[in-house]
Amino acid sequence: DGTNDGLPPCKIKVVGVGGGGGNAVDGMTPFSTYLPTVEFWAMNTDVQAMSKNSAPFTLNLGTESTRGLGAGGKPETGKKAAEESRAAIRQALAGADMVFVTAGLGGGTGTGAAPVVAEEARAAGALTVG
Q1: % of the chain exceeding 90 in pLDDT
Q2: Which of 3, 10, 101, 117 shows the smallest number of beta carbons within 10 Å?
């Protein structure tokens, strides 16, 4: 019946933010068939990089501020892009019981946007790991 001792299954979302986080999730997606209750997401400001990602769910961050061209290695640009996309991030994380946020630190999107993604996950009531 899809439950464990009468409880619904835990909904887990794994979110790769930026290039490094997106690469991590890209490497995990082949295992998604074995993990039916896990959603794999790639969130990035760089549309070209995201188009090459095999994650089943993607979100382009900061379409107004970055126009899909990336954050240029500037964390403040990554943060601004995530702030601009808060509503879309919130919608992507809706219903999650647990959210894993993965990012490579030192670049623009991962460094600047990952904390915003984590804030939204916590605000949604999900156990947040990152």
Answers
A1: 89
A2: 3
Contacts of 22 (CB under 8 A, 6+ apart): 16, 42, 43, 44, 49, 50, 53, 55
Would residue 6 count as lying in a domain?
no
Residue reference for tokens 């949604």: 124
Q: Which CATH number characterizes residue 18's domain?
A: 3.40.50.1440
Average pLDDT value for the chain = 95
Specify the number of domains making up the chain. Answer: 1
Write down the pLDDT at residue 2: 54
| 71-111 tens-digit pLDDT | 999 999 999 999 999 999 999 999 999 999 999 999 999 99
H helix or E strand, kind and range, residue 66: helix 63-66
Residue 1 has pLDDT above 70, yes or no: no
What is the residue type of 40? Answer: F
> Residue 109, Cβ neighbours under 10 Å: how many?
34
Residue 61 burial (C-beta neighbours within 10 Å; 0-12, 13-18, 19+): buried
H or E element in which residue 47 lies: helix 47-51
